[in-house]
Every structure is written in C-alpha cells, then in structure tokens.
Design brief:
The protein is an alpha+beta fold and about 130 residues long. It is built from 6 helices and 4 strands.
Length: about 130
C-alpha cells in the first residue's frame, strides 16, 4: 500500500493534495502527518515537518522532490515525468525547486500563516513549548 504524508496544517500543501485529485494522481492513502501513526509508517515528526513523505507499496521511503517523483511514477501517464525528476542532473534541479517552493509556500496560492517555516515565524509565534520541548 502506498502512502503520501503531507503537512495538514499548511494550506499550500492541502491545496496541492486537492490538485492531485484533479490530475488523477493517486496513492492508496493520503494523510496529514498530524493525523498519521508515524511510528507505524517509520517516520518521525521532524521528517514530516521538513518535507512531504512517500512510502511505496514496497516499503521504501522517499522525501521531498523524490516523494513527488515516486507519486508520479506510481501513476500511469505521469511515470515519465516522475522518472525525469529522479534523473541525474534533473534531480538536483528538482531538489532545488522543491526547496524553493517549500521555503516560499506561505506566499504561494493556498498558502496561509500556518505554512511559515520556523525561520519565518515572528518571535511572538515562538513563545510557549516548541516541538523540541516535547
């Protein structure tokens, strides 16, 4: 069973999941990491905060642009694009693009203040317990 794990608190990420459906991109299960049994999936919260995660039906994990590539490769007509995202040279560019998008997701369509990365948050947003205090 393939699983795509995304950030359910991020409006941009949630918008991307809705677009996946319109593009007929499927995983057996698509779940926000905040509602997933991360231990059962072999994931840590920090991994999920940093990037989208893919667990293939073969049990292999992929993160970030490689997770997107695996999602594409698992979906018929999208397979060639997924293979391109993994190709030497192009994979480097895809990783850079993924990082740029992740770093700017708050200002992209569907983005909300919850999409901010920890370095973008104002000091008042950091008051109280942080994920590392748990």
């Amino acid at each position: 069973m393939s699983v795509l794990v995304f950030d359910g608190d991020c409006g941009f990420c949630t918008t991307c999941v809705h677009v996946m459906g319109r593009l007929h991109l499927r995983a057996d299960r698509v779940i926000a990491w905040q509602h997933a049994d991360l231990d059962a999936l072999g994931l840590a919260p920090e991994q999920c905060r940093q990037a989208v995660q893919w667990i293939g039906s073969d049990g292999k994990h992929a993160s970030g642009h490689l997770a997107v590539a695996e999602l594409l490769r698992a979906n018929g007509p999208w397979r060639p694009l997924g293979a391109l995202l993994r190709a030497p040279g192009l994979s480097f560019l895809a990783a850079r693009a993924y990082t740029w998008i992740a770093d700017h997701r708050m200002s992209l369509p569907g983005g909300t203040p919850a999409c901010r990365t920890p370095t973008e948050q104002a000091p008042c947003d950091l008051e109280g317990p942080t994920p590392t205090d748990e």
